[in-house]
Design a protein that fits this description.
- The chain is an alpha/beta fold and about 325 residues long.
- The chain folds into 2 domains: about 5-125 and about 280-295, Rossmann fold; about 130-275, Dihydrodipicolinate Reductase, domain 2 (2-Layer Sandwich).
- The chain contains 9 helices and 14 strands.
- It has helices at about 15-25, 40-50, 60-65, 80-90, 105-115, 130-140, 175-190, 280-295, 305-320, and strands at about 5-10, 30-35, 55, 70-75, 95, 120-125, 150-155, 200-205, 210-220, 225-230, 240-245, 245-250, 260-265, 270-275.
- Helix 4 packs parallel to helix 5, helix 5 (about 105-115) packs antiparallel against helix 9 and helix 7 (about 175-190) packs across helix 9.
- InterPro entries: Gfo/Idh/MocA-like_OxRdtase_N, Gfo/Idh/MocA_domain, GFO_IDH_MocA-like_dom, NAD(P)-bd_dom_sf.
- It holds the Pfam family GFO_IDH_MocA_C3.
- This is Gfo/Idh/MocA family oxidoreductase.
- Keywords: Oxidoreductase.
Length: about 325
């Protein structure tokens, strides 16, 4: 890292990587230095679009580049583990798209590697860092809605039936739970600050052997979080927190929200609107850079234990709904 510039590398310049690259432009002292893709032309096109100097057709070349200060991993879920593992072994800090791995065993191994190599590792749960959700956290800490009772959320769209798309591809760890349900789950744990005491799940496994709809009730010692995630219907996609004295409602598309409403008994409704500076990814980028500057190996906002708890819960949900990924036994 130079004295003034933090150099980022991107592995896999797909759809979500564009949000990352656009966000980098508003982060002080941050630069997109290199991008790597299995397709060199794709890497070059992406690099040109974002004024990036270096394009590689090999992930290891990017990992080994001494000028790269941290790597953002944005390939399909199945490949997160192997890419993050290579980065950590090389001592390269990692921001890995969610879900950080496909199961708990994999994330446990990554955490062990991060500890052994004293290298920063964070799951890219951008939602936790958004200004609106940080305000929600303040309201919760102030107990504005009283004792928490129920969380209710959804993240479901009626996606086009393209069986070649990663969303419906079992070999790429597709399905609703890992792609959209992780938001409902990780934000439930953000609100409640612990893992659930019991889990009840029901799902619809489609023709391509991925879950096209999963509905879950998580019990946190008397507080319920109920959610549906899916690929076969469009729901309202909001997140509401109900307490003994009111509620907090985060707008539709809660995972990328800029608006929340606080309703407290006997008080006037409070509406906050907090727009992004860019795509919303800038806040997690800044968290990574700040943590590394402070010599931290993990973030307090999305800790290693948070990621472990999320994957542990998802493993149990998959077990209950019969969602299996055979490649886990082959890799």
């Amino acid at each position: 890292m130079s004295e003034t510039t933090f150099n980022w590398g991107i592995i896999a310049p797909g759809r979500i990587a564009h949000n990352f690259a656009k966000a980098l432009k508003v982060v002080p002292n941050a630069s997109l230095y290199a991008v790597a893709s299995s397709n060199l032309e794709r890497a070059k096109t992406f690099a040109q679009e974002y004024d990036c100097e270096h394009a590689y057709d090999d992930y290891q070349t990017l990992i080994d580049d001494p000028q790269v200060d941290a790597i953002y991993i944005a390939n399909p879920h199945r490949f997160h583990f192997e890419c993050a593992k290579k980065c950590l072994i090389a001592g390269k800090p990692v921001l890995c798209e969610k879900p950080i791995t496909v199961n708990e065993a994999q994330v446990q191994e990554l955490v062990s590697l991060a500890q052994r190599h004293q290298t920063f590792l964070m799951e890219a749960v951008w939602t936790r860092f958004l200004p609106v959700w940080q305000q929600v956290k303040v309201w919760l800490e102030e107990q504005r809605v009283g004792e928490l009772r129920v969380l209710s959320s959804s993240f479901s769209f009626n996606v086009p039936r393209d069986e070649n798309d990663r969303l419906l591809n079992n070999e790429l760890a597709g399905g609703a739970l890992l792609d959209t349900g992780i938001y409902n789950l990780t934000m439930s744990q953000f609100v409640l600050q612990r893992e659930p005491s019991s889990i009840v799940a029901n799902g619809l496994i489609g023709e391509t052997n991925v879950d096209e709809r999963t509905s879950v009730i998580l019990d946190y010692d008397g507080i319920a979080s109920q959610f549906t995630c899916g690929l076969n219907a469009t729901l309202d996609n909001s997140f509401t927190i109900y307490g003994s004295n009111g509620s907090i409602a985060v707008d539709s598309m809660f995972w990328g929200a800029t608006k929340a409403v606080l309703k407290v008994k006997g008080e006037e409704e409070q509406v906050i609107e907090l727009p992004f500076r860019a795509t919303g990814f800038e806040y997690q980028i800044e968290e990574v850079m700040n943590c590394i500057a402070q010599g931290k190996l993990q973030s307090d906002v999305i800790s290693w234990q948070d990621s472990i708890n999320t994957m542990k819960t998802m493993d149990e949900i998959r077990r209950q709904i019969g969602l299996e990924y055979p490649f886990l036994n082959r890799d």
